[in-house]
Structures are given as C-alpha cells and as structure tokens.
Amino acid sequence: MRPTYGAVSRYGLIAYSSSLDQAGPFGRTVLDTALLHDVMAGHDSKDATSINGAFPDVVAAARKGDVKGMKIGVIKQLQGEGYQTGVQARFYESLQVLASLGAQIVEVDCPSFEYALAAYYLIAPSECSSNLARFDAMRYGLRVGDSDGASAESVMNATRNAGFGHEVKRRIILGAYALSSGYYDAYYGSAQKIRTLIIQDYAKAFAQADVLVSPTAPTTAFKIGEKSNDPIAMYLGDVATIPVNLAGICGMSLPAGLADEDNLPVGFQIMAPAMQDARLYQVGSALEAALVSQWGGHLISKAPALGGSK
C-alpha cells in the first residue's frame, strides 16, 4: 500500500527522493493493512511534507468492502502489448469479478503515462544524488579508510565506495549528470514537465471513475539476480506503479492469482485520488473477499514452493 504523499511521516527515514518517498504498510490481508495504515497515518510536525488535516477512515472502508455503483477505470496505457499473457488473464478475470459485484468498468486514456518511466528515472536519481551527498564520512554515517595520514578525499572515496551498492552508485551518477550544468533543463526540467502532464491525466481520469486499476507489473517476478546486469529490464518492471508515485496519489497492490505459464503471483493495482485512500481499501477488500472465496483460501496457501519445501 502506498498512502497519499504526506499522509505518513517520513521522519527518521533516510531520504532517497524527497518528492517521491512515502512509507506505507504491508499486510497479509486488506483489513490487516488498513489497521496498520490507520496507526501510521497522521500529521507529524517533524516532517515538513506531512499533511495536517482530516484523514480517511481506512479501517471502516476495508470492513465495508462494497463496490456496488462505483466506476472503475481501466487505464488504456497500462495493459496490452508488453504485458505477460498470464498477467493479463488474471487482471481481466479480476475486472470481471468487480463487475459481478456491481461495479461499472470504463476505459480511461492517460497518454502522458508513456513517458512516466523516463521521467521517474531522471527525477528520482537527481534527488538521490543530492540527498545522499551528505554521506561523506565527515559529518555522520559510515566511515572507513580512516588510517593515519589518510586525506579527507581518500576517506570519502573509500567510505562511499564501501557503503553504497552498485545500483545506488548508478543512480547517483545518473542524477549528478542530469543536474549538471547544461543538462538540467534538457533532462531534469523536462522530466518535471512530464510529471505535471501525468498529474493532469490523473485528474481527467478521476473525473470519469472513482478508482483506476491496472496490473501491478507487466510480468511476474523474475529470478533473484536474473536482471541485475540489465538495469533497463529491471526498471521496466516499474512501468505501472511509477505514475502513482510521480503524482503523489495513493495506490494499492493485491494478489490476483497465479500466471498459467510460470505459476507465479500476479498483482492487481488500484489507484485513487490524493487523500481518498479509503476507496482503495473499499475496492480491495471487496475484490479480495471474492477471489479468496473462488480460490478456497488465501493465495499464499496455493503458491508453489520454488527451490525448496513449502
């Protein structure tokens, strides 16, 4: 579950991308997640981005679990080509379940989503390179290579080399390049303009539907380390969830079944306008109850044990 940006305090967390970072709950069921969300959400004066206002009753929404009369928008750009066959099959089956529960399914067009992935991987690394610059071994944090006679520069280099993983280093370098003189407007500035267009697309879509839905990812999970040498392939797995993050709205992912071709779980993503997190729990709870009834139990009890005993 990704709450509305600013609904859950980030105080005490290491800042990665300040305009995107948002803590959220995980749970075995929609109701469990709502109970945790209810505890986590609220204003915190120690977080400058924290929302000071009334928060939706997500627990009551999860317990209600009713979609009758609701309009559910299917995003045209987040389905079809590039999505695994088994992922699409479980997604469309879930849509049929929601329709059978009384929801009206409509298709919405969000043309700017085509550029969301590129925009995100300019904005996030740019903010990352700025935020993580503070970990220089001089003021706080990890410190290695501090032997007699070592220069400040050598200690910084040794510490940052030891403390940051390959992917973090890659993003710092990319972000520093995007923010460098002569490239700021061409890359970071353009990415922020795309972000504005994505926010506008969401506003138009939510004028047509109460919530929006899509597969959570175009494929099922890849094997550990399988794509670590191909960052572009890894990044493409985020294509459906990145627009929510860029717009600062709320989103939820829940299991929709197992893909026929590899027997791995498929995610179903639900999105709602900012501060309308309760809608996610209302729809998610209704869908979960119907699917669990079909499966004869929660999906975790049906998933195969890969590479070991169950």
UniProtKB/TrEMBL annotation:
<protein>
    <submittedName>
        <fullName>Unannotated protein</fullName>
    </submittedName>
</protein>
<dbReference type="GO" id="GO:0003824">
    <property type="term" value="F:catalytic activity"/>
</dbReference>
<dbReference type="Pfam" id="PF01425">
    <property type="entry name" value="Amidase"/>
</dbReference>
<feature type="domain" description="Amidase">
    <location>
        <begin position="1"/>
        <end position="280"/>
    </location>
</feature>
<dbReference type="InterPro" id="IPR036928">
    <property type="entry name" value="AS_sf"/>
</dbReference>
<dbReference type="InterPro" id="IPR023631">
    <property type="entry name" value="Amidase_dom"/>
</dbReference>
<dbReference type="InterPro" id="IPR000120">
    <property type="entry name" value="Amidase"/>
</dbReference>
